[in-house]
Design brief:
Helix content is 8%, strand content 32%. By secondary structure, the chain is mainly β. The chain has one domain: Chitinase A, domain 3, CATH 3.10.50. Strands 1, 2, 3, 4, 5 and 6 form a 6-stranded antiparallel beta sheet that branches. Strand 2 (40-49) and strand 3 form a beta hairpin. The longest helix is centred in the middle third of the chain and has 6 residues, at 75-80. It starts with 22 loop residues before the first strand and ends with a strand.
Length: 124
């Protein structure tokens, strides 16, 4: 199986205000099977806060990829991963409405724009 990278991605600190719409950027396009809405995906990922650049989660730090159904994830992942191919690396900039909702929503990331870099390792 081809993987986008065997190395944890570095996320550059963004310039300017956070976008109000989700931004999807293919860092590397894969050539494997395509992720479909509602499917299961196995990924490696890193997530940082847009405003601070602070990393809040990373499968790389745990030393293993993770597999889950897309329908159980935040809307930004449900919308941003389908169409991606195995072996690819994609950057998602996700505004609060597609992440953990507005500030005061009860989650520590509520009200925050998030950046994820996701390596798609497998689909089912």
């Amino acid at each position: 199986m081809v993987v986008a990278s065997d190395k944890k991605p570095e996320i550059e600190f963004p310039d300017g205000p956070a976008p109000t719409e989700m931004v999807i950027t293919d860092v590397e396009v894969g050539d494997g099977a395509e992720a479909v809405p509602g499917g299961n995906v196995r990924v490696h990922y890193v997530g940082v806060e847009y405003d601070t650049g602070e990393e809040f989660d990373s499968s790389w730090n745990r030393g293993e990829s993770i597999e889950f159904p897309l329908r159980g994830l935040i809307q930004g992942w449900q919308d941003g991963i389908p169409g991606m191919r195995v072996g690819g690396r994609r950057k998602l900039v996700i505004p609060p409405a597609q992440a953990y909702g507005p500030a005061g929503g009860g989650h520590r990331l509520s009200g925050k724009t998030l950046i994820f870099v996701i390596d798609l390792l497998d689909v089912r």
